[in-house]
């Protein structure tokens, strides 16, 4: 074979490879779908009330997922009330949607029989915010949210390290300690971590109503500080209360930074608290993902037959040093 013929052969092979690549690329492009979930009907639980500092970010994530996939979504707001969620879940199953994205707040015992009913009806399930490993193990589904125990423990340990809290220091942990155990795993883990470091921890129950109206907690916070003026830090159970730390501290006659205010989540109010010196640390659990990913996963399960998604949204800590990186997104209701 002459040199010219070899060159011609190489050129022919290269042209053939390009043609094959172009064919595959064209076929792949043709297989992509717009509004690929448009025939799927879902019901999504946002958890709190409309306009709630946390629930609104979850809701925005769900709205974005519905727009991106084309899914038909009915949104449910529950004011963080477990009994309301259970009744709404019954109603959701009776409506027979293709899938339901459910908050896990009512706990394993309450949701287990309804998850069984959904499974028998062929309704796909996803859970967000509070994990239900027993329900998922028995009747399937996925979970999108922070792992409550590890996140709570990490916050307590970070608080001790970052603020040099020492043996005998007094701290307050607010949490739903008067509710079912699944609801206070996170805050309980924070309190346990602080106690393990030798701190004096006072656990104070936080009613569900405080999430809807954080001002309802003003009297409890001020009373706790009056009863123990030596309190070094307060840990709040959610972004609604942490975002209202300014009001609590001003009502108690405290200056910015005089009491360390710690908690979970981000919001425009929490960003303002960081900026003004009222908030010192928060554990971010990315509620936008808790809205977006369950809808995406339900669509993938129904349309493509894919397995449920499990995502740990516990992203780390927001501090006075890095809050500016999420400030604009928080203002938009996305972080």
Automatic annotation (TrEMBL):
Enumerate the InterPro entries for this protein. Peripla_BP_I, SBP_2_dom
Superkingdom assignment: Bacteria
Which range is the signal sequence, renumbered to this chain?
A: 1-29
**Keyword Signal attributed:** yes
What's the chief localization of this chain? other
Periplasmic binding protein domain boundaries: 49-301
What GO molecular function annotation could you give as one example from this UniProt entry? carbohydrate binding
CC terms in the record's Gene Ontology section: cell envelope
Instruction: Please name one Pfam family that this protein belongs to.
Output: Peripla_BP_4
Q: Which UniProt keywords apply?
A: Signal
- Subcellular compartments: Cell envelope
Record-stated family = Belongs to the bacterial solute-binding protein 2 family.
Query: Know the name of this protein?
Result: Monosaccharide ABC transporter substrate-binding protein, CUT2 family
Q: Which organism is it from?
A: Neomesorhizobium albiziae
